[in-house]
Amino acid sequence: MWDGRMSGRDYDARWEQLAAQGKNPHGEADFVDSLLGGAGRVLDAGCGTGRVAVELARRGYGVVGVDVDSVMIAQAQTKAPELAWHQLDLASLHLDDTFDAVVMAGNVLLFAQPATEAAIVSCCAAHLVSNGVLIAGFQLRVGGYDLAQYDSHCTAAGLTLVERYSTWERHLFETENYAVSVHRFE
Prior knowledge:
This protein has helices spanning 8-20, 27-36, 51-58, 70-79, 108-111, 117-125, 147-156, and strands spanning 41-45, 62-67, 84-87, 99-104, 128-139, 159-165, 178-185. By secondary structure, it is an alpha/beta fold. The chain has a 7-stranded mixed beta sheet, sandwiched between helices. Helix 6 (117-125) crosses helix 7 (147-156). The longest helix is centred in the N-terminal third of the chain and has 13 residues, at 8-20. The radius of gyration is 15 Å and the shape is globular.
């Protein structure tokens, strides 16, 4: 997990090491791809160095990446200068664009400034087309941002829970320490 002190290159090295060990570094992209069926537009909200966005673009999706961290955005731009990258705060995000899916992979909501989670969810939902999906994966920690809060923020933003798993590989969710949730915008 990125701790704010690493360079974008250091962050990417972790995923490269996993790939070298034969592990799939693209579980999030696989998940999004399976929901959208190979076509559509995706907003990678909290894109970091662009790992998910770049892979989705490679698969043919129209992708836009947004992150508040200048180091992460710089690394993303280096990796894929042809993609649209924006250094913006998700809590006040306003793009003149809508998407079939907004994905927040990699604990985005846990890196948010305290008490901005509802604004982030609302801003992300505002960028969905009708019937679009908000997909978020994050760790569940005692005393931290939890699923009840997240679901409440999603409901307030006009989103309905349609699926929840404990991994990006769709393992059954019970009482796990990680959740991948799919909420639909009606």
